[in-house]
Design goal:
The protein contains one helix and nine strands. With 117 residues, the protein is of the alpha+beta class. A hairpin with a 2-residue loop joins β1 and β2. The chain is elongated and about 80 Å long.
Length: 117
């Protein structure tokens, strides 16, 4: 009887450990989707925080071409009324600056900071 109780206790502990590992793996694969609206001369993000994997859906709602650059990744130049998708896997939780690389646009206000938690 003692042996059965010991086996059940060991099984319960292993079950809890497996559940903890599954939760950790699930959290590591979380993807945040962020809608980015670009116009003269600002970005509006649906959220300014996210997971380590982020899909940025960038829409140019302005009248001039714009792009979106963050953590060494950049969309192509986006024509007015068009959109582009940018998937970024951030290496660590931190604050990452973003900007439009069209000359003068970041200086005019097309920049900000995205926080990865």
């Amino acid at each position: 009887m003692l042996r059965i109780r010991t086996l059940l206790a060991v099984a319960a502990v292993l079950g809890l450990a497996l559940t903890a590992v599954q939760l950790a793996v699930a959290r590591s694969h979380v993807t945040t989707t962020v809608t980015v609206k670009a116009k003269e001369f600002s970005f509006t993000l649906s959220t300014k925080t996210g997971a380590k994997t982020v899909v940025f859906k960038v829409m140019n709602v302005g009248k001039l071409p714009h792009d979106f650059k963050i953590s060494g990744h950049k969309t192509p130049l986006i024509a007015p009324g068009k959109s582009a998708t940018l998937r970024v896997n951030f290496p660590v939780a931190a604050k990452y600056p973003y900007l439009c690389t069209v000359p003068g646009h970041a200086a005019a206000g097309m920049k900000g900071v995205f926080t990865v938690k």
